[in-house]
Amino acid sequence: MNFLDLNNLSEKRLQALNKSGISNPEDLLYFFPRRYIDKSNIVPIWNLAGQNEAVTVTGKVIRTEVTGFGNKKRLEVIIQDNTGAMKAVFFKGWKYFIKQFKQGEWVSLFGVPKQFGRQMSMAHPEVEQLDDPGDDKAARNLIPVYPSNKFFSKAFISNKIIADWVGQILQSYQPQEFLPETLLKKYQFPHRNKAIRDIHKPAGKQVASRALERFKYEELFLFELSMAKIKYKRFERQQGVLLEPGEITRKFFKNNLPFELTGGQKSALSDIRTDLKSGMQMNRLIQGDVGAGKTIVAIGAMLMAVDNGYQAALMAPTEILAEQHYFTLKKYLEPLNVSFRLITGGQKNTLRRDILTDIEGGNCQITVGTHAIFQEGVTFHNLGLVVIDEQHRFGVKQRNEILQKGNNPHLVVMSATPIPRSLAMTIYSDLDISVIRELPAGRKPIKTAVRSEKERENVYRFVEESVKKGDQLYVIFPLIEESEVMDLKDATMGFEKLKRRFPGISIDLLHGRMKSDEKEQVMRRFIEGQTNILVSTTVIEVGVDVPNASIMIIEHAERFGLSQLHQLRGRIGRGNKQSYCILMPGVKLSRDGRYRLKKLVETSDGFEIAEADLRLRGPGDFLGTKQSGLPEFRYADIIEDRILLEQAKNDAWQLVRSDPELTQLEHQNLKDVFEPYFKEKKEFFGAG
């Protein structure tokens, strides 16, 4: 790292910068301010009384003093401007904060002022070191405030020092523009050279905001260009087998369905038919709320493959869901004489060998299973179509591995977790999307209510009355066994308590640690109506379909995510009965916990719930960054910058269609930047 331009930094400061992701002078330029102090909007100390929101004050450090004894020590700092004096108080970490204040220096404090007698004070304000603003009448109005951390503090790297370094580098830095001129003109973005200067030395807030917007667009555009390139290669250039609906498919929809397809199901099937007869590989996401009937659409797609002499595979994230799909296929496909097998990780060797022989020989037309489908030893005779259920639970790598089992097989991925549009434009940018919004006819809205511990006996009386009428119910717990760390009601203890409370009622227990055959037996008893109450953990979350189950009680409901609660609730309301979801929270409810339960009571729209959940948890937690491979953007926020994301997506797709290899002269600089970017992130993009 050559820091000659930065006055030959000490080893301690070099290490602090390296640990913060800054390894060269250019990195420092892209270490953007997190906010700006607006000198035109600084509140004089004498005018702080009555301020109820966080404000900025500046002043000279007059005195620092550590008061109190032992654990009650605190740091008090007196600062003064030309209108008066105030106090900053630090109760925790005073040894760290005392280093930030030197008598006679100017500082900025950002916090909520409080009045004690005649004295104004701030508790734990944000602190920034400043030049003496009173000596420079021509000083700019905006002072950049850079992110700080413990490494900077230990190396005595202050905000002023970073600003000085950046100023030195900017004197000789001339970045190369790579965004096409047409896009710069379209959005009136500043060129890169001006934008980087406007970030660090802005003439005003609007100028800084416009420059930041340009850099947000830039990283979203590079990402969407990668996805567009993959999509172009798959959709426009990669051949796929030609499939047309035949006799089996027509029989299935004409004779085997006891209900009318919804508009969304018909539309999704139409999209699939169009894809399959295009001669190009299909890559389509079927997105629908819980109970929207995605499985019927998937069966229709797989039967089109069977009609044309090809095999199909249906992959699910868990054994219990794979088994549920297997029983669904059994119900619909046995009358059609279509052969299908179930393959999971826990099967005995003799059974497994028999299944593998059928798959390789072509005797098995449809294979259902978990990730075991794409493991070594599974060889398909002529795989033509793959369906992946609950797509967000599989990484991109797993999706690609199953596709290697055939010669460009068509791909349908399904998600019962509604994905907000902003997320769909990132993780599913390489897929075409069909959305099924409406539920099948005859479904009644699920009545959802929150009930406190005091009302538990009333809830149990309601359960008794419902069971007498022949209803079945789920009782969901967040844990399997008692935890010493978390004070939650666990499934095993809850199961025992419910057996004592309802001695004449049949109750079963289901959880993820049970063996596959045990889980199947439990579910079979519940499906056949032998069990009245099924106590379960979240293994019940997706896929399980018991039309007679019309009540769900969720214990410690506040501990579940909003989308997860919606998924759980979707296990009931599958029949014609009125269904009820009863949320039983713990005694202590956080603000977020209260909001989640309130939102679930107010709406049953999975897409609205998903949007709310995304805002609560952020993209990484919503999907699980490791599972989904969700990219982390440095400047952009896919929730707040959704419009910018959509613009970048559209622009990237248009560019790839007009110049897929970026060979045109005006795209040469973009190509120089894009190719190493794509190579670096190829694991996420699935190597195209």
Description:
40% of the residues lie in helices and 18% in strands. The longest helix has 33 residues, at 205-237. The model is unreliable at 135-139 and 625-629 (pLDDT under 50). It has three domains: 4-170, Beta Barrel (OB fold (Dihydrolipoamide Acetyltransferase, E2P)), CATH 2.40.50.140; 247-436, Rossmann fold (3-Layer(aba) Sandwich); 447-603, P-loop containing nucleotide triphosphate hydrolases (Rossmann fold, 3-Layer(aba) Sandwich), CATH 3.40.50. The protein contains 25 helices and 22 strands. The radius of gyration is 31 Å and the shape is globular. The strands form four sheets. Strands 6-7-4-3-2-5-8 form a seven-stranded mixed sheet. A seven-stranded parallel sheet has the order 12-13-11-14-15-10-16, sandwiched between helices. Strands 17-22-21-18-20-19 form a six-stranded parallel sheet, sandwiched between helices.
CATH class of the largest domain reads: Alpha Beta
Largest sheet: 7 strands, mixed
Q: Low-confidence parts, pLDDT < 50 over ≥5 residues?
A: 135-139, 625-629
Strand order of the largest sheet: 6-7-4-3-2-5-8
CATH architecture of the largest domain: 3-Layer(aba) Sandwich
Q: What fold name goes in the CATH topology slot of the largest domain?
A: Rossmann fold
The radius of gyration computed from the alpha-carbon positions, rounded to a whole number of angstroms, is: 31 Å
Which structural class do the helices and strands define? alpha/beta
**The number of domains:** 3
Q: For the record, what is the CATH homologous superfamily label of the largest domain?
A: P-loop containing nucleotide triphosphate hydrolases
Q: What is the count of β-strands? A: 22
Fraction of residues in β-strands: 15-25%
Give the helix proportion (percent range): 40-55%
Globally, the shape reads globular
Task: Report how far the terminal alpha carbons are from each other.
Answer: 34 Å
Helix run count: 25
The overall average pLDDT, rounded, is 85
